[in-house]
Amino acid sequence: MKENKFKKNSSQALTTQHETRMLSIKNLKASIGEKQILNGINLEIKAGEVHAIMGPNGSGKSTLASVLSGRDVFDVTGGEVLFDGENILDLSPEDRARKGIFLAFQYPVEIPGVSNANFLKTAVNEIRKSKGLEPLDSKDFLVMMKERMKLVEMDKAMTQRSVNEGFSGGEKKRNEIFQMAMLEPKLCILDETDSGLDIDALRIVANGVNALRSKERSFVVITHYQRLLDYIVPDFVHVLYNGRIVKSGTKDLALELEEKGYDWIKEIKADAVEFSNK
Amino acid sequence: MPVKEFPELQEKAISHFNHLGFPGQKNEEWKYTNISPILSKTFSDSILPGGITKNEILKRFPFIRDAIFIVVENGRWNREESEFKDIPQGMKIGYVREEKNNPSIQKHFNSYADVQDDSFAALNTAFSNDSLLIQVLPGSVIEKPVFIIHVASSDEQAIVIHNRLLLVAEKNSSAKISTLFVSKTGSAETFTNAIHEIFVGENAKLEFDILQNENEKSFHICGTHVLQSANSVFSINTVSAGGKIVKNKLHIKLNGQNGENHMHGLYVASDSQLIDNHTAVYHAVPHCNSNQLYKGIIGGKAHGVFNGKIFVEKDAQKTNAYQSNKNILLSNDAVVNAKPQLEIFADDVKCSHGATTGQMDEESLFYLRSRGIGEENAKSLLNIAFANDILNAISLESFREYLSSLVETKLKDTLS
Q: Are the CB atoms for B358 and A85 separated by under 8 Å?
């Protein structure tokens, strides 16, 4: 009896530990064709945290986002990614989405002939089904849609149009955040959501994201510029260079990068390599 | 043998056929479509009594409930099971033979089909029994849709069926006519050989939809020949889903200035189906527009063929002619042959054509899956979207929805 009780307690303790650590990336390596892009990434994200990932062009930021969401053009050549304690690298993109991973695309895809509303209803109900929930009927779905549309100032016409077809850059990004609001993911990965946005669109998108922040939901905000982080204030900032996180800090690091550019990061890296060679 | 409707024409057609014989694959029009599977069979042309009822028809095609519909079974008009009591004023539906002395009908009947050059047109002319006439009288705007339901049915014997329609939209008239080709459930092998002759008068507006969905044993050859007058607008939507071999020939001549047409085609082929669309648009006069978009979804070991020709004659200046053919291949064994062809003899024209054939778009597929939509469902959504681009051209909503779900069901069967 006593032994049993003890076991139960210890497993509970373990679960609690996993719950706080939502995402755990360990020595992740990935390549496309012959070219290795991620060279061993380590990152821990707890529930409710916002992590910004910055870095110069070609450092592997978008590759990291793609690998996390299950894009199969990249080959994972090493390491593991634990999401709620489970290795997700063998899961299909849809299974990752159903577990609560959401990627806001840098370049949202236009899908002529599929209405935004129909697409989202299918997605919402497939995710509900995977959780053993009944599908939402049309009325409940419309109510939910109407409410979430407000977050990013979407109008009804946008939901009736084909997915992203003929949308402006800003509308496409707002649509990504709208989808995020509808699908209620645990982990949101924003891949250069600020690219191609003017200041008004940026504010709308950032307001949407901030409204979705909660203790249970974490964010990975990938961006080239510090500007977005004025609106979405991160808990941590990491600098990615040559497929590795070379520096981590608080939001002040982003300001430092804004001021100094990325060159000094490259030098730090070069020094480090030199140092390790010695 | 029933009494010949037009003994003289029919005798002539037989002699044309005797001269032409059946086309082989050396004939450019039949390069990719081998008809030896049809020729190796013995088809009887005995006219079998049908037995389909109005109720069965309405159950299968609920969207025709409020429409005029003509049931043609094995090439014969089944008047009892048709619904044509409330034909709107300004529209005539009957047999061509009853209007033999009507000068307008005389002018159009057997004037557009290429009886001298096409073996199947010759055969049709020689052997069709109930040539159907739909005439929209000058100035008449017919809102009520009209359906012609062709049912092929045979219990055992393989039979050949010749369907013939003359559709005349007179000056300033407007109408929507849809024609369906289906098999009776459980029917044996049938070979349908259909001819549509269509005249679109000055300032007339006509939509003509064709659904080909006979069973997997059937052969289907269909020639549609259209003459357009000045300021007319003609739309044709051809949806091909069922049949072992389906071959369409669509010829449109723009014969009066400011004519406009829209040709949409969707073919969904699976297993070992062959669906072949040959189109030809003749711009004979200046200031006309033609637009064509044909799309194919080919799975299994099926074969799709698209051959589209645009001819712009020397006098046809200021012509706008567009043609596009897009195909999705769902399997490694699926094949498409696409051949766009332009022959332009005028110098002030805008013409373009293009053909694409490929796999499903990976980016789109990943996007849908990244939102939690399973792979099969995502593929189905994309295919339906691809198809709806064509189906959206069909103006009757209930018919469009029927076609959309028909295509969806077929794609689900093909993908799973």
A: no
HSE, CB side, 13 Å, CA atoms: give it for residue A46.
Answer: 6
3-state DSSP helix/strand/coil percent for chain A, to nearest 5? Answer: 45, 25, 25
SS3 call for B243 = coil
Inter-residue contact A67 to A43 (CB < 8 Å): no
Query: If 0-12 CB within 10 Å is exposed, 13-18 middle and 19+ buried, where does residue B314 land?
Result: exposed
Region of residue B20 (phi > 0: left; psi between -120 and 50: alpha; otherwise: beta) = alpha
Nearest to A93 among B363, B364, B366 (CB): B366
Under 8 Å between Cβ of B256 and B202:
yes
Tell the CATH topology of A20-277: Rossmann fold (3.40.50)
Across B299-310, average pLDDT: 96
Predicted local distance difference test score (pLDDT) of residue A225: 87
Closest by CA position to B293, among listed B328, B325, B321, B261: B325
For residue A179, the chain B residues in CB contact (below 8 A) are: 371
Q: What is the pLDDT of residue B359?
A: 87
Q: State which residues of chain A have pLDDT below 50.
A: 1-19, 273-278
Check the CA dihedral B38-B41-B44-B49 and report its sign: negative
Amino acid found at B208: F
Beta strand pairing call for A187-191 and A162-163: unpaired
Q: DSSP letter string over B5-38?
A: SSHHHHHHHHHHHHHH----TTSGGGSS---HHH
Among residues 52-91 of chain A, which lie with CB inside 8 Å of chain B? 69-71
Provide the residue count of chain B.
416
Is the pLDDT reported for residue B15 higher than 60?
yes
Going by pLDDT thresholds of 50, 70 and 90, the confidence category of residue B46 is low
Backbone angles phi, psi at A120, to 5 degrees: -70, -35
* Contact residues on chain A for B401, CB-CB shorter than 8 A: none
Distance from CA of B266 to the nearest CA of A (A): 15
Which residue in A208, A269, A245 sits closest to A28, CA to CA? A245
Q: Are A91 and A50 in contact (CB under 8 A)?
A: no
